[in-house]
Each structure stands twice: as C-alpha cells, then as structure tokens.
Amino acid sequence: MSAEVSMIHPLGPTTVQDWLAEEQPVDGSRLELIWGYLHMTPPPGGPHQYAAGELFVALRGAVRASGRADLTALPAVGVRISTSLRIGVIPDVSVVSVPPDRVNFAAEDLVLAVEIWSPGNTRAERDTKIAAYASARVPYLWILELPDGRPARFWGYSLGETGYRQEVFAADGESVKAPGPVPVVIDTARLR
Predict the structure, then answer these.
(1) What is the pLDDT of residue 136?
(2) Distance CA 74, CA 127 (A)
C-alpha cells in the first residue's frame, strides 16, 4: 500500500519525530500528522467531549472489571502509527497494552482506538485514519458519529486479514456489546 499511496499522494516533509517535537496548541486543538503534513483540528466541542468521556468511563470500568492489569484506557493520547508513512494521530479514546507512563504510544501498544466523527471531519480524513489503524494492525476500532440534530451512531470493528470488518452497529438509543479486548456494552442513548 505504501508504494501506491506515495504515487497518489506524495508524503509531506514532516516526520513523526518532528510531530512529536511540535509544541501542542494551548487552546485544546489537536495537531496530528497525516502523510507527513501537520493537520490541526479545532478543540472538540461539548457533544464530542461528552461522548468521549462516556466512552472512556465505560472502557475504564470494563478494563478494571475484567481484572486486565495489562490494559489501560486513556483519553486523547498521541499514537505513532507509521514512521514510513509519517502518520501520528490522537484517538479520542484508546486502550493500550503498556503502562501509561509515557507521553505518546507506539502503534503496537494500541489495542483499541476510538474515533468520534463530528460533522466537520472530512471523508478523506476518516478514510485515512481507518486505513492507518488497519495498516498498523490495531486489533479493534470503534467509530462514533455525532450528526447534527440526529441520534449518535456507533460502529464496532475488529481487524481481519485484509482490514476491518464491522461487528456491530447501533443507533437510536440501541445498546450493543462492542468488540474489544474486554466485554463492553455501549448504550448509544448515553452518548448524547
């Protein structure tokens, strides 16, 4: 895939190490690295942060209840996805398999990534992040979409041989058991 990507979209000049050395915005904006280009998104709004908080609390509780001392749920931490493709992202919520005693995490530390799409996220941004997580072999991915004026929509994916396969979908107040390293029930009614 990297040869194809480099022909379609040449990599930018910024490396993962450059991204890590950048001063982070003080206003809560998120600075990510996509194909070697710095990409800044505005600070997440209230609905986004509320949903991220609910998912973090659910994951933290499930990890603790499972007795999995090897896993930690974390909100909004930097993850070095690919050095060669120059991708570094900040998932809204993560579950990592290493102690949380570091500033950022390697892709192989990431067990579950949670991305919350707001109306401003472009299709290209969404597709790029999903492809990056898959190429980094992140075992589980959750996507939450918060469309304006409509109920939250939740997708849970697990990694297969060729990419992610959808395991669950929920909307309109439905609850589902989400795929992941520990059992978690997601109630979409609690995400708004």
Answers:
(1) 96
(2) 23
CATH 3.40.50.1970 applies to domain 45-191: no
The residue with tokens 């379609």 is 8
Q: Which residue has the tokens 């004026």?
A: 149
Tell me the C-alpha to C-alpha distance, in Å, between residue 73 and each of 3, 93, 122, 155. 34, 7, 27, 19
| CA dist 77 → 43, 103, 107, 148, 171 (Å) | 14, 8, 12, 26, 27
**CA angle at 89 for the pair 143 and 58, rounded to the nearest 5°:** 40
Nearest to residue 5, comparing CAs of 111, 145, 135?
135
Q: pTM above 0.85?
A: yes
Return the domain boundaries, the chain: 45-191
